[in-house]
Amino acid sequence: xxxxxxxxxxxxxxxxxxxxxxxxxxxxxxxxxxxxxxxxxxxxxxxxxxxxxxxxxxxxxxxxxxxxxxxxxxxxxxxxxxxxxxxxxxxxxxxxxxxxxxxxxxxxxxxxxxxxxxxxxxxxxxxxxxxxxxxxxxxxxxxxxxxxxxxxxxxxxxxxxxxxxxxxxxxxxxxxxxxxxxxxxxxxxxxxxxxxxxxxxxxxxxxxxxxxxxxxxxxxxxxxxxxxxxxxxxxxxxxxxxxxxxxxxxxxxxxxxxxxxxxxxxxxxxxxxxxxxxxxxxxxx
Length: 285
Fold this sequence. Notes:
Layout: H1 3-8, H2 11-22, H3 37-41, H4 46-54, H5 61-92, H6 99-125, H7 130-133, H8 136-141, H9 168-176, H10 181-196, H11 198-216, H12 221-251, H13 255-259, H14 263-270
């Protein structure tokens, strides 16, 4: 599968059938348990976490915010493909001097994405009341990744295959058909690289919160632009850490596993924001 096609597809739709029908990472239903596995497996989508943080009104604010994010995702999708290409290059050129242009390309794309995130959040912020606006920095933190690849999943009462959200480890196991010691090796790599990325993670979090604070306080455009540029650089550092981890994972794969159509590009997308949260082995955004 071509890289651009992989990058444009929602992650869960791309691998949901693989996870379900191969049985890898499929949620198990205990004997006698009620309800389908899909309902039990559901966890809040990124948009749902964002809307819950702001306590958006279901009747007016929630639909309006959904429209704002969906409209912005058209531009975000194109930028996300640029970022996906740069991620692949960072993995391929891991540790080599030639990786510098790929990192510069990612930083440039990240600056565009962060600026789009900020512009979009400003539109959302205008819809909020004062109590909601007080949560702006934390809410903006939760917008990371909402616009990168496709229209954001807005949630709702009806669940589908896309709501079965395996963890990264389950997804790596499925997409590469990891066997035996490979699973332990991949987990060990990700545990170690997550720990090693703590400084990059702290910088990424702080600079993203700073953008939310700048929007909240009505900072001058030049100050907001500076905050966006800082976060773009921090995002590039985070992407480099994720790419290093992905390169180490690729090193434990067999030639056949590496050659699986679309496997490396899809796995690279699983790694986006892997080191940004409190733990790496969660459902990718």
